[in-house]
Amino acid sequence: MKIAILGMGKIGSGVYEYASANPNIEVKRTLDLRAWMDNMTTDITDIVNDPEIEAVVETMGGLEPARTYALKCLNAGKHYVTANKYLVSEAMTELKAAAKKTGAAFMFSAACGGGIPVLRSLFDQAACDNIIEFGGILNGTTNYMLDRIETDSLTYDAALKEAQALGYAEADPSSDVDGLDAQRKLILGLAVGFGYHVKACDIPVSGIRSILPEDISYFKEKSLSPRLIASAKKTEKGLSADVCVHLFRKGTAQAAIEKNINYAYYVGEKSGLFSFSGQGAGKYPTAANVIADLNRIISGARHMLIDSLTEIGEIISEKHRYYVRVDEKYEDTFKDLAESMVQKEHWMLIVTKPIDHISLVNTMNASGESFFARINE
Ligand code: HSE
Questions:
Q1: Of 262, 307, 348, 360, which has the maximum CB count within 10 A?
Q2: What is the pLDDT of residues 212-258, one digit of tens each?
Q3: What's the CA-to-centroid distance between 16 and ligand 1, angstroms?
Q4: Atom 7 in ligand 1: which residue has the minimum CA distance?
């Protein structure tokens, strides 16, 4: 199968390398902002109008021009494989419709979990069982940072710099530290496993930006490890989904996930828990997931989304206990909510009674510099 690769950065180069060693795949063209290698173009129409190119791989990232390129390629009947979670989380419904119209394949395994084959497995499982939970540690940058801060007492800034130098972070790392990257991956899991297209604005998200050494000391005292978790669950009341830091006891699978490793899980109603851990980012792991999608297309697979994607707007927020750190001057605000409260210097360290994520955020927004994390019971 002759392919083109859009975006010859780290992951695109990995796809190029793997594809060059694969007897079933030939890279005919590549596209980048500047043409710097043979057969490279800066013009998408060179690829769209080339009848020999059957499949297009996109590893550019970002919403535009990725969305326009994807629609052009799919409308021209070219199979489309992307590692771009932002694109898929925002535009999956129109991309799926375009693919369906022309019979082209639309695959995005590498957009969630880097090298972990969780979406492909989820798709296969959802064909026979009702998926009732999906989530996990879906962002390598924040896991790397939390691990380095906790284990090696690095500062937040030093840990972020390391994660950037190692190539884990997004071009704009605020999407990592504020939880948006994990939220986008959660949206993909919800689509593949549950058949729901949920908009980012409907999923509560809180990141790690405001964590302080005071929080880490408290967690260490209590033998808890912080992990940024994206999670979704079908409940009797509806779909619950959110992204925030969770606290796990030492000895749990999540607390044992170190460095940039991802841990993704899903639960089938009858088949139970399945979990995956491995490289959630990086050139070769992500490229391998792209190649696996291409191989599936060669074998005849065409999609990883069910036909009847349902748009879900209402997300319910379940109640949990949280660790909260606020300035002492907000003690009264949290008095009724607190199950226990200790003062450390000018901070109040609180364990809340069960409360939902959105109500907690609303209370905390009026409480200055603060941090919270869900206590995993
Ligand atoms: N910035 C992402 C992460 C890259 O840290 O997980 C892989 O999607």
A1: 262
A2: 999 999 999 999 999 999 999 999 999 999 999 999 999 999 999 99
A3: 20
A4: 281
Give the three-state DSSP class for 242. Answer: strand
Tens-place pLDDT, residues 272-306:
999 999 999 889 999 999 999 999 999 999 999 99
In this prediction, residue 250 carries a pLDDT of 95
What beta strand segments (E) does 32-168 contain?
A: 40-41, 55-58, 79-82, 106-107, 131-137
User: Secondary structure of 275-324 in the HEC alphabet?
Assistant: EEEEECCCHHHHHHHHHHHHHHHHCCCCECCCCCCEEECCCECCEECEEE
Average pLDDT over residues 88-101: 97
Nearest to 183 by CA among 318, 323, 287, 88: 88
What is the number of the ligand 1 atom nearest to the C-alpha of 85?
A: 8
Asked if 356 and 315 count as a contact pair (C-beta separation under 8 A), the reply is: no
Residues 6+ apart with CB under 8 A from 38: none
Q: Which amino acid is at 1?
A: M
- Residues recorded for the chain: 377
Given ligand 1 and candidates 116, 139, 177, which is best to mutate, with the most ligand atoms within 8 Å of its CB?
Answer: 139
Expressed in angstroms and rounded, the spacing between residue 168 Cα and the centre of ligand 1 is 5
261 neighbors 94 (Cβ within 8 angstroms): no
Q: Provide the residue type at 174 as one letter.
A: S
With both helix axes pointing from N to C terminus, report the angle between 180-189 and 118-126 in degrees, rounded to the nearest 10: 30
Pairing outcome for strands 224-235 and 131-137: antiparallel
Of 69, 72, 52, 47, nearest to 60 by C-alpha is: 69
CA–CA distance, 352 with 334 (Å, rounded to integer) = 8
Compute, in angstroms, the gap from residue 139 CA to the centroid of ligand 1: 5
